[in-house]
Structures are given as C-alpha cells and as structure tokens.
C-alpha cells in the first residue's frame, strides 16, 4: 500500500486510471468519513478535494496507476502519519474485507 496523503492544497482532487493489477483506493476526510473504490485494469477512480487517499494492492501482481492532479497540489503525508486510516484492507481466503 502507499503511505497515503492529503494534498497540501486541500481543495485539489485527483484522478487515478488503473493500468494493471487489483486493489482498492481507500479515502478519508478529517471529519471521519471513509470511502473505498475498487481498482482494476481500465477502472478510473476520482479522489475528491479534501479527501486523503491510499491505494492498497490486493492482488498478486503490481498495482499500477496513472494519476492526474494539479501540479501545485502537493503531498501532505504528515497528517496521515499521525491520524492513520479508520479501516485496513485484508485479503483472506480470496475475499477482501475492510475493518
Ligand atoms: Fe494525491
């Protein structure tokens, strides 16, 4: 999984186009909201402004995405280091669970 980050310019969003692999994009706000979107080849995921995001590889190969965001968005990893995400992603017996 990636470290996860907010954007330094919090009102900027991001689009991920998954090129290869399987996984989930997990997202959270500082108000405690949580969301997830499946990632797979050809699937596009929108990360709205103000949402921290982390991609989690749940497959057996690399998870590869093409990401587009404003050049000045920046990466704020520090808040996620302190806050973490409210859920983790587990793969058990081929099933994906978040808890
Ligand atoms: Fe981002």
Question: How would you characterize this protein structure?
Answer:
There is one protein chain. This protein has 99 residues and is mainly beta. It contains one helix and eight strands. The strands form three sheets. A three-stranded antiparallel beta sheet has the order 4-1-6, with no helix packed on it. It has a three-stranded antiparallel beta sheet with strand order 3-2-5, with no helix packed on it. Strands 7-8 form a two-stranded antiparallel sheet. The longest helix has 6 residues, at 78-83. Bound molecules: fe (ii) ion (FE2).
Label this structure with key terms:
mainly beta; 99 residues; 3-stranded antiparallel β-sheet; binds fe (ii) ion
Summary of the model, kept short:
This protein has one helix at 78-83, and strands at residues 14-20, 22-28, 34-40, 44-47, 52-57, 64-68, 89-92, 95-98. With 99 residues, the chain is mainly beta. The chain binds fe (ii) ion.
Unreliable spans are none
Q: How large a portion of the residues is in β-strands, by DSSP E?
A: 35-45%
Number of β-strand runs: 8
Shape: globular
Mean pLDDT: 97
Strand order of the largest sheet: 4-1-6
First-last Cα distance = 16 Å
Number of helices: 1
């Amino acid at each position: 999984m990636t470290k996860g980050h907010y954007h330094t310019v919090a009102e900027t969003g991001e689009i991920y186009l998954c090129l290869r692999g399987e996984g989930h994009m997990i997202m959270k706000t500082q108000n405690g909201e949580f969301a997830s979107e499946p990632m797979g080849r050809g699937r596009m995921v929108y990360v709205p402004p103000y949402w921290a995001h982390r991609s989690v590889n749940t497959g057996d190969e690399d998870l590869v995405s093409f990401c587009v965001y404003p050049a000045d968005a920046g990466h704020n990893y520090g808040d996620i280091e302190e806050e973490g995400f409210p859920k983790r992603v587990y793969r058990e017996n081929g099933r994906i669970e978040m808890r």
